[in-house]
C-alpha cells in the first residue's frame, strides 16, 4: 500500500517546506484543493520540480470541463488529478482522454456520493485508475462519522481505491487490511508538531 500526504496548506512556500520534510516517507504528494485555489497550478509545477521522483497529485475536484482542466494540470506537472464522482460521465471521460494523451491518470473522488459502491464500479469502467473513498473535513466532524463505513465501501466495491478521511497511525493498519491501494493522510501529518516524524511513523505502520 502506498502512502499519500494531503497538503492542505495555503501557500506554495508552505507546501514546498512540508513536502521537503515528508518526501522521504511518502509515495504521493497531494496538493489540496485550497492550495490550488489560492496559488494556482504554479504550485503543482513547483512541487514536481522539487520532487520529480514522486507522484504529484492535483486535487482539482473537477465537476465540469474535465478534459480542459485535466489537460491544464497535467501540463503543469501533475501525475494524477481528481474528478468528482458526482460529475457527469462525460466529464470523467474527458479527463481520462487528457490523461491518456499525457500518459497520466484520473482519480475519481467519491466525496458526497451517496452510493459509493455503485459509482466506484461505474467510474472504474470509464477509465479511473482508482477511486477515492473520501470523507471530507466537514463530514468527519459530524456526529456519528465512522471510518469503518468507508472501509466497508472500499472492500465491497472490489475496485482499486484509496482512502481519505481519518487515516492515522491508529487506523492505517485497518486501511491496509481493507485492501486500499493508497492511504491518504492529511492532518495526521501536516497538523503534527513534527510532520517528518509523523510521516515516518505512518510509513512504519504499513506492513
UniProtKB/TrEMBL annotation:
Pfam families: OMPdecase. Its EC number is 4.1.2.43. Residues 2-202 form the Orotidine 5'-phosphate decarboxylase domain. Pathway: One-carbon metabolism; formaldehyde assimilation via RuMP pathway; D-fructose 6-phosphate from D-ribulose 5-phosphate and formaldehyde: step 1/2. Keywords: Carbohydrate metabolism, Lyase. It catalyses: D-ribulose 5-phosphate + formaldehyde = D-arabino-hex-3-ulose 6-phosphate. CDD domains: KGPDC_HPS (cd04726). This is 3-hexulose-6-phosphate synthase. The lineage of its organism: Bacteria, Bacillati, Actinomycetota, Actinomycetes, Micrococcales.
Amino acid at each position: 500500500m502506498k502512502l499519500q500526504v494531503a497538503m492542505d496548506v495555503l501557500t506554495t512556500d508552505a507546501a514546498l517546506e512540508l513536502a521537503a520534510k515528508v518526501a522521504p516517507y511518502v509515495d504521493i504528494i497531494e496538493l489540496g484543493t485550497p492550495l490550488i485555489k489560492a496559488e494556482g497550478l504554479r504550485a503543482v509545477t513547483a512541487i514536481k520540480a522539487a520532487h520529480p521522483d514522486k507522484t504529484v497529485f492535483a486535487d482539482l475536484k473537477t465537476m465540469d470541463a474535465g478534459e480542459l482542466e485535466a489537460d491544464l494540470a497535467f501540463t503543469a506537472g501533475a501525475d494524477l488529478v481528481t474528478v468528482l464522482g458526482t460529475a457527469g460521465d462525460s466529464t470523467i471521460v474527458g479527463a481520462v482522454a487528457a490523461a491518456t494523451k499525457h500518459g497520466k491518470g484520473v482519480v475519481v473522488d467519491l466525496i458526497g456520493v451517496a452510493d459509493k459502491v455503485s459509482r466506484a464500479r461505474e467510474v472504474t469502467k470509464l477509465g479511473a485508475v482508482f477511486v477515492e473513498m473520501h470523507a471530507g473535513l466537514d463530514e468527519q466532524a459530524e456526529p456519528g462519522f465512522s471510518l469503518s463505513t468507508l472501509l466497508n465501501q472500499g472492500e465491497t466495491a472490489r475496485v482499486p481505491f484509496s482512502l481519505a478521511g481519518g487515516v492515522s497511525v491508529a487506523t492505517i493498519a485497518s486501511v491496509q487490511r481493507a485492501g486500499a491501494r493508497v492511504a491518504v493522510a492529511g492532518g495526521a501529518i501536516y497538523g503534527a508538531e513534527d510532520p517528518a516524524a509523523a510521516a515516518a511513523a505512518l510509513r512504519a505502520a504499513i506492513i
